[in-house]
Design a protein that fits this description.
- Helix content is 44%, strand content 16%.
- The chain is α/β, with parallel strands linked by helices.
- It has one domain: Rossmann fold (3-Layer(aba) Sandwich).
- The strands form two sheets. The protein has a seven-stranded parallel sheet, with helices on both faces. A two-stranded parallel ribbon has the order 5-8.
- Helix 1 links the parallel strand 1 and strand 2.
- Helix 3 packs parallel to helix 4 and helix 4 packs parallel to helix 6.
- The longest helix has 29 residues.
- It is globular, with a radius of gyration of 20 Å.
Length: 277
């Protein structure tokens, strides 16, 4: 039986993942800032589900969540860093305090969790760490620069982590979902309070009042949960799991754009080496 610790389980992908792993017979530390929000997820499984209050920006709560999970179930086998929210603002509009909070939630908190579970995983020479990122890390749309930067930072860190822990029997990979039918584009989406008019044609198009995608996204969170479980259980988990046809399409477009740029500037880039002889 596998023990999961999943962050951000009050709604969306985290909630569906917790429900799915518990339904299939695994144990789970089901976390949310308000543990009352996950009572219904845990109630049918009193022996295998543990609801824990966790604000990932609190190092004390991070340590307590991991310790309680280890005490109850003997250790954490799979960590899923999923908790997060959206923040939309043009780069010039970004409010420092808001940006700091965004990075605390999407980067610093997840790193604290990784560091908290790794000693146990190293001791057992097994475990998996999953970073839930976003196609935003690849596409970097106008108005999502700070969110994209936070997700890209955690993806890069996970790529290095993967290499560091593989010889220890531990796997690490990132997940890049596209648009899924969760609260992300609704309740969980924040934005700058004082927009600059000059950015109305770019970043402004993605402000909440102009976004009509909430509730119509093609992605099914239940199917995403199954895909993540399949990747965790694979003999060789992927380096990056891209979820949703929209994300896969955009990923391919970005790759093509990058290749075209690489080719167009190949001579200039190659010309910076020291001259032979």
């Amino acid at each position: 039986m596998t023990t999961w610790l999943i962050t951000g389980c009050s709604s969306g992908l985290g909630r569906e993942l917790a429900r799915t792993v518990l339904a299939r017979g695994d144990s789970a530390v089901v976390t949310a800032r308000d543990p009352g929000a996950v009572t219904d997820v845990c109630a049918p499984y009193p022996d295998r589900a543990l609801a824990v209050a966790l604000d990932v920006t609190s190092p004390e709560q991070v340590r307590e969540a991991v310790a309680r999970g280890a005490e109850r179930f003997g250790g954490i086998d799979v960590l899923v860093n999923n908790a997060g929210y959206g923040y939309r603002a043009a780069v010039e509009e970004g409010v420092p305090a808001d940006v700091a909070r965004l990075f605390a939630t999407h980067v610093h908190g997840p790193v604290d969790l990784v560091k908290a579970v790794l000693p146990g995983m190293r001791a057992r020479r097994s475990g998996t760490i999953v970073t839930v990122s976003s196609i935003a890390a690849r596409s970097s749309a106008a108005g999502s620069g700070y969110y994209a930067a936070a997700k890209a930072a955690m993806e890069a860190l996970t790529s290095s982590l993967r290499v560091e822990v593989a010889p220890l029997g531990i796997a690490a990979f990132s997940v890049e979902p596209g648009a899924f039918r969760t609260d992300f584009a609704g309740r969980s989406l924040t934005q700058v309070a004082d927009p600059i008019a000059d950015y109305a044609p770019t970043a402004g198009l993605r402000r909440k009042e102009n976004d009509t995608t909430d509730g119509t996204q093609a992605g099914d969170p239940a199917r995403a949960a199954e895909a993540i479980i399949a990747a965790v259980e694979a003999p060789e988990p992927p380096r990056l799991l891209v979820l949703g046809t929209d994300a896969r399409t955009r990923f391919a477009e970005v790759l093509a754009e990058q290749q075209a740029d690489l080719d167009a500037w190949a001579a200039v880039g190659a010309g910076t080496d020291f001259a032979a002889g």
